UniProtKB/TrEMBL annotation:
This is Zn(2)-C6 fungal-type domain-containing protein. It comes from the Eukaryota. Keywords: DNA-binding, Nucleus, Transcription, Transcription regulation. Residues 68-120 are annotated as: Disordered. SUPFAM superfamilies: Zn2/Cys6 DNA-binding domain. It is found in: Nucleus.
Length: 611
């Protein structure tokens, strides 16, 4: 297979972050692979010639000069030698001197005037960082990660010296990544924005342009992904998406020799000879964290993971799981890796990745062997959760597996694509829901979905506000939104007019009214602390879901209840024998029931109690 073709000049999007602009096929004209993946406009702006640029600047200067002259503002003459002090003092209309604002302060303190002047020297990074937040606050944010964030979700540890001075001197990029992750609900939003821009500038300069690789840089990318918070201005040159971060982390881990096919002892790419500072546990742990990030993102977007699970992954998992000297959180990482691996297998074998393939019913005999095998694998996973793995996340991922296993009961030939992230109310459909002939398999899947969603939401709602803010939203909160979304899908499938599930699963047993209010209150609390943190942004789905739910009940559910009562009423008439009296239906309709007429009148409902 020929390699992707490269353009003579990169498109504007790739040029802004200085990465290769690769076309989809050899000899193609665009768009490039990155623009296709991120759904961006792929446009190449021709470079301006030097003469054109000079002429453009001269025209701008002339335009400004005319504007100042029209306002009677005196300009310094060329003969004055640039001495503006006398002109400023002699004329009230002359241009006032610039105050020593942020730009002058930056120049005096050695801060680059333009952000694209950032170098790979950590001293430049800290010069810019210290101008944003003082070192005392930086030290407190580092402590927040080590004391509050990591113990709650021990995925990316800090090895070796953890004090502020050592981190600043030895692992500067990892320190800034930690500050980026831990500043939510602590720093002002504008300061968070400045830290995010600095972090992405460093990432672009060091990793994309400098092509530097190390486990420390890899850990920094993992932290940025887990607590991702994009700059407010997406046109900013250093912007990275979560897809870019996952690819950067996975590629770096593979190039460091942490993942990929098992390599022999000999060979020039043998990482044991080039990366002797990487110990076994660090190699296994960093690679498996990359697998967690990659697999979870593929599950959200319902795209197959390009990194297929192989014998090296299995070996890394087993070695880390049985490593006696494993650090804090080692057992939890292995637990999450096993869960994500099984969830990915369920999604793949259930046809969730292929949105174009028609859905296959859960009761179809052709899929029963596959479903039984997946259910057995889920039971095996649950039985292998050891007692020493305590805490909420020991069961959190078990419920995620159950949700993925029974999600196909809600699939139709046309709605599979709507189960991808984001899980928003706008993606719900009141007409595209399954209406099969209900079997015991359907009933089992419906009840399992309901119970798993309730259990997962119960775990999340048991967290305090600090925990909710400090947990990585991309792994935890997105799963909460997924459970909430499936509950709403269940509610539609059991309450919408014409449904077949409602006779076997009461829509009120889904307890939508019991779960949405506390989620909304939690979102309000988190948003008041930091409206741009990952937790707040994901939980914003709950208020909109509540609005949709109330409108849906007013529009469809109440009508469906009235129609059902009408059907039951007509059935009662037939059962009592009034269907054979030879009178038109309207004469024996509901009109007389509300007229208050006396018995015996034409069109008045007869007394049924005496029959």
């Amino acid at each position: 297979m020929p390699p992707p073709a490269q353009r003579p000049r990169a498109c504007d999007n790739c040029h802004s972050i200085k990465i290769k602009c690769e076309l989809g096929k050899v000899g193609g004209t665009g768009p490039c692979q990155r623009c296709v993946r991120l759904d961006k406009e792929c446009k190449v702006t021709p470079p301006k010639r030097q003469k054109d640029r000079v002429a453009e600047l001269e025209a701008e200067v002339e335009q400004l000069r005319r504007l100042l002259e029209s306002q009677n503002i005196n300009l310094p003459s060329p003969e004055s030698g640039g001495d503006r002090s006398s002109a400023n003092e002699s004329s009230p209309n002359s241009i006032p001197p610039r105050n020593a604002g942020p730009k002058k302060r930056k120049l005096e303190e050695g801060i680059p005037e333009r952000e694209d002047e950032l170098t790979t020297n950590p001293e430049d990074w800290f010069t810019r960082l210290d101008a944003i937040i003082p070192q005392a606050t930086q030290s407190k944010l580092l402590d927040r990660y080590t004391v509050e964030m990591f113990p709650r979700f021990p995925l990316v540890p800090i090895r070796g010296k953890k004090d502020f001075a050592s981190m600043r001197a030895e692992r500067p990029m990892l320190l800034i990544a930690i500050l980026y992750a831990s500043c939510s609900a602590v720093l002002h939003l504008d300061l968070q924005e400045d830290v995010a821009k600095l972090m992405f500038d460093i990432l672009s300069k060091v990793v994309v342009e400098g092509d530097q690789k190390s486990t420390t840089i890899l850990q920094a990318i993992q932290i940025i992904y887990l607590w991702f918070r994009a700059p407010k201005n997406h046109a900013y040159g250093g912007y990275f998406s979560i897809f870019d971060l996952v690819k950067l982390a996975s590629d770096m881990a593979a190039e460091l020799g942490l993942g990929g096919p098992i390599r022999g002892i000999q060979g020039k790419n043998n990482w044991h000879s080039t990366h002797r500072d990487i110990d076994n546990e660090s190699a296994w742990r960093n690679w498996l964290v990359c697998r967690i990030l990659s697999t979870s993102l593929c599950l959200f977007m319902r795209t197959p993971d390009s990194l297929r699970w192989d014998e090296h992954d299995e070996s890394s998992l087993q070695m880390l799981d049985y490593w006696k000297e494993g650090g804090e959180g080692t057992r939890l990482i292995c637990h999450i890796v096993k869960a994500e691996k099984l969830t990915e297998r369920i999604a793949s074998e259930s046809g969730c990745y292929d949105a174009e393939t028609p859905a296959i019913g859960v009761s179809d005999p052709a899929v029963q062997p596959t479903r039984l095998a997946l259910q057995s694998a889920a039971l095996d996973f649950e039985s292998q959760v050891l007692p020493d793995l305590s805490g909420p996340f020991a069961t959190f991922w078990r419920h995620i597996i159950t949700l993925q296993l029974h999600e196909p009961v809600l699939h139709t030939p046309t709605n599979k694509r709507s189960f991808t992230a984001p899980y928003l109310a706008e993606r719900l459909s009141v007409t595209d829901f399954p209406m099969p002939l209900v079997t015991p398999s359907h009933i089992a899947s419906l009840t399992s979905l309901r119970d798993a969603a309730h259990s997962l939401l119960d775990i999340f709602l048991s967290f305090d506000t600090t925990t909710v803010i400090t947990l990585p939203a991309i792994l935890v909160h997105s799963r909460v939104a997924y459970a909430q979304y499936l509950l709403m899908r269940l509610y539609i499938a059991t309450s919408a007019p014409g449904n077949t599930f409602g006779a076997f699963l009461d829509p009120e047993s889904l307890r939508i009214d019991a779960y949405l209010p506390p989620l909304i209150r939690l979102q309000e609390i988190v948003s008041a602390a930091d409206e741009r943190c990952g937790a707040s942004r994901v939980l914003w789905a709950s208020p909109r879901m509540r609005e949709w739910y109330l409108n849906y009940r007013r529009t469809f559910v109440d009508v469906a209840v009235l129609e059902q009562r009408q059907v039951e009423f007509n059935s009662a008439l037939d059962w009592y024998g009034f269907g054979d009296v030879g009178v038109e239906g309207w004469d024996w309709g509901l009109q007389g029931l509300f007229d208050g007429g006396e018995m015996g009148e034409v069109g008045v409902m007869p007394d049924l109690e005496g029959l």
